[in-house]
Amino acid sequence: MISANDLSPAELAALLHFHADAGVEWLLEEEAVDRFAEFEAMKAARRPPAQTQQEPSPAEQRPSPGQRQTSPRPSAAARPAPASGPQPAIPDGEAVQQARFVAEAARSLSELKTAIEAFNGCNLKHSARSTIFASGKAESGIMVIGSAPSAEDDREGTPFSGKSGQLFDKMLAAIGLDRSSVLLTQVIPWRPPGNRPASPAEMDICRPFIERQIALAEPQAILLLGNFAARFFFGENDTIHGLRGRWREIAVAGRVIPAIASLHPQDLLTAPVNKRLAWNDLLVFQAKLNALSLLRN
């Protein structure tokens, strides 16, 4: 095992970033902790006490003359469970209702951003570094929605960062756009550990936030990037290859908005052969923006 004392500051920083990107959330402690014993103690503490012995009478409780009175020692099961850190909030029905209330109470994107940053009802927030919120120009009428923050997004605090963000900038430039002229956001505001897919419960807790972003921004056209984003809004289980390239309508807050899905820039980095498909989708998206007079030539 490599000791931290043998690493330079740059090597140590790189190692820590590697572990964070891999989804490591806890470091080893100085002393070994018996988690099995902690779990058993916590179960015993929650279990109602068993009435196995009859309570002694007051006379029996009084010490005899000359007998020193001592306090009874609690059994292992009666001892309080060892203190542990705060338990992560797991999305449930009550948390979903709270998220809806918080989202609907926001009257602007800035208010919604503040509300999401203060919201603690989703476990994803406790493992993420940043809360990724919409950035760019809401007044453009053009909205681009990705799936979930990547490790680079989480580190930088902005959507579409890193290498995939650089490719994304080139994709926008090819149809006469840039990230400052559209509104960029993600379906999930917090990066799932290890870039795993968000669970159905996590999707439920985040749905009010992304739908409220759309309602407040009032886009006239939406570009969805990635398999997860397409499935989330279209309600289908097909792959991105079956969902991409065709205009559909999504209903949010009483408005029907045209939306088209395409491959995420990260998909194109993994399989560059699909760039031709993404380019075709971008041309269809550009034609729609021209028809809506949203492109400034």
Automatic annotation (TrEMBL):
Q: Name one GO biological process term.
A: DNA repair
Amino acid composition bias (Low complexity), ranges on this chain: 71-82
Q: Which GO terms describe its molecular function?
A: 4 iron, 4 sulfur cluster binding; metal ion binding; nucleotidyltransferase activity; uracil DNA N-glycosylase activity
Q: What is its EC number?
A: 3.2.2.27
Write down the Pfam families for this protein, in alphabetical order. Answer: UDG
Answer yes or no on keyword Cell membrane.
no
This protein's source sits in the domain of life called Bacteria
User: Which stretches make up the Uracil-DNA glycosylase-like domain?
Assistant: 133-283
InterPro entries xrefs: UDG_Type-4/5, Ura-DNA_glyco_family4, Uracil-DNA_glycosylase-like, Uracil-DNA_glycosylase-like_sf
> Which region ranges are annotated with the description Disordered?
43-91
Instruction: Please give the catalytic activity noted in the UniProt record.
Output: Hydrolyzes single-stranded DNA or mismatched double-stranded DNA and polynucleotides, releasing free uracil
Identify which top EC class this enzyme belongs to. Answer: hydrolase
**Per the similarity annotation, which family is this?**
Belongs to the uracil-DNA glycosylase (UDG) superfamily. Type 4 (UDGa) family.
Name of the molecule in the record: Type-4 uracil-DNA glycosylase
Q: State the organism named in the record.
A: Rhizobium aethiopicum
